[in-house]
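Lecture notes, unit on protein representations.

Consider one protein chain, 277 amino acids long.
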Amino acid sequence: MPSKPKLGQNFLRDPQAIERIANALGDLAGETVFEIGPGQGAITRALAARAQRVIAIELDRDLAAHLRLQFPRERVEVVPADVLQFDFAAEAVKAGKRLPIAGNLPYYITSPILLKLAENHAALDRAVLMVQRELADRITAAPGSRDYGLLSVTVQMHGPVKQLFTLPPGAFSPPPDVHSTVFRWRFAPRFAELGVEDAGFLRFVRFAFAQKRKTLANNLRAAGYSAAAIHNAFARSAIQPQVRAEALSLEEFARLWNELDREKAAPAAGAAFSLND
């Protein structure tokens, strides 16, 4: 077994937490389940005991080689790959249905992984993921709270989220400097329900949260929307002109976006999409 993590991994050691993560996915009998970052195989073992097959995606090739020695190939397929390049859709097509996913997400690329999963929502049914506690607070935040922002809206537009439990640093080896929170995400996108086009709407939300200290109207003006279009859209949406983006629900964002679209407003071209609001 590799003695030291090469990529900054913190391996979960708490047996009860491992069981809770696997159980949180629900009934896995006959299922194929993805696992992101299996590391030394603690969660993998719990998933393999419940599911028909586990597809374990591990970037560290030494760890991947060790995992192959631990598990029978017909039960656990170890894929030495970057999860950001992994083809979830192809595996879902093979299985003939959307698949569950679990993972202890690396802190340094958590947001890109969440965006990758959101983009692959058609291949995924539900996820149980562990992230840094502060990030989990942002993911699950409600409108009007300090943590509510671009990450909250992006994840929640792809389905409901719920925090399950939090673990102290001592549950891991080596212990990280932060607490970690496990949350469940059910993939049920709301774009069609709310009458918005996904790429355009998320671009609009990125503009809305560009500078959280500014009002929503000021952020939209900075993005290139005209003052007249903003005024008319706010009035028809019944949204107060001095509101900040963090006060708006998903439904209110959708209503405002649709009204701006009616105004034929043309914002400036934006940068590549990022969840780091």
